[in-house]
Write a structure and sequence with these properties.
The chain is of the alpha/beta class. The chain is built from nine helices and seven strands.
Amino acid sequence: MKELAGQSVIVTGASRGIGREIALEVARRGANVAFNYLRSEPQAQELKAEIEALGVKALAYKVDVGDLGAVRGMVDAARAALGRIDAVVNNAGLTRDKLVMMMSEEDWAEVLRTNLTGAFNVARAAIFPMMKAKSGVILNVSSVSGLVGMAGQVNYSAAKAGLIGLTKALAKEVGRHGVRVNALALGFIETDMTAKLPAQNREAALKMIPLGRFGAVGDVAPAAAFLLSGAAAYITGAVIQIDGGLAM
């Protein structure tokens, strides 16, 4: 299926995990892909080659999403190279999990800067050309941690809840200009991040999930591609949970 043929999509934090799979999925569906990374140069170049092997264009930028000037430069460069930006996927994120009494100002600030301010920066940089074109999609990758809260994740839960608020407010601002804004609220997905969970925490998490398993990146990417496509043309301001029933 090539329902995204000819479109251009920016995916942040795409050198590995969920972002990588979303970038590959939209490329399989015909989209040209620009993506950023911060430290994983070998993985980024490998992804670029994989995307190009699918017969579409790929651009890789070493950019910190917390830096608005750098993000604007990336969006402008991608738009110049690809001719247009049809969608952005705000996936870049990190965790610094600690109980609040142990959490430093740096732990708090770094998570908010990347997970929430980073999404604002990308949306801010991309929104004007989308509004001018009367078309565009912004997809924010949030978490069930932003819906129900998770002990030891005050910073992460706050950032992901903020991302849901950003999604709904922005959807109301730009809907009349033909731009859609949605979010995915993810549960436990098998990535490098969840691989670090201690065995007892993993066991406890599995007991809370009605489907009895962690999700795979392949459970997320098709839903992301759907929300970017014309099949979702009447969906905006939505928060779609991909969590195996965890946050019911």
